[in-house]
Structures are given as C-alpha cells and as structure tokens.
Request: fold
Amino acid sequence: MLRPAEKVEIFKVSREEFSSASTDCNCGANSVTLRAQDEVEVVIDYQVVYVIDAKQVVKLYLLWRHSYQDGFVRPQSKRVTKEVASQYTSNEIALTKRDEIEQAIFSRLEVDFSEAYLILVEFKISDVRLND
Reply:
C-alpha cells in the first residue's frame, strides 16, 4: 500500500530505439554533421538500441527521471559519433571502414551507457551523405 506522498513510477525495460533520422521528437536536428579527415563534410544518420538496466532502475530514476533519452542517449550518441567518425576520411566513413567505425562508436558508448544505468544493445550507421 502506498503512503499518501508516494507515487509509483513505471519504466519500460524492453528495448528502446533512438534514430537520428526520426522526426517524432522535438529535439532539433539529430543527424551528425562533421568534417572528415580529408575536409569533406559528412552527414551521418544512426540508430541506437538500448534497454534500461533493470537492476539499476532506482539509480536511473534518481539521475534522469524519464528524460534519459533526450538528456543522455541523444546527445551522448551524437557527440561520440562525431568524435570517432571525424578521425576517418569521408571514403572510409561511407564505404571502406564503416563496420570499424560502428564498432569503435559502440565500444565508447557501451561504457557511457553503463555509467548512466542503461545497456547498449546496438549502434548502427543507417546513412552517410557527403557534401563536397
């Protein structure tokens, strides 16, 4: 039985997804725009699949309440994608080293997500556009 001042918070512990190409959030442009090593401007769209660490849900609530996607997942994914991808040439990002870049981003984000009481399941680059 709840006491008068207590309130139940419900968190979804199934997979959640954030897509930078999504138009259903009020969070501005989510695609990552960067200058590759060869000075070509590159725009990257990506998808992040994650779950709440059910064992850490109280800590997640205290840290983020229900704003973990807009407050952490979106900005952290964008920042790390930009940092990692900018170390490669546009050709490597678009074609030859895409898997390597995805893995490097996943590895960096996996640690960050864990510290935010989330479990990263997948990071995938969904589209790369070059602006010469």
The domain at 16-131 is CATH 3.30.479.30 (Tetrahydropterin Synthase; Chain A).
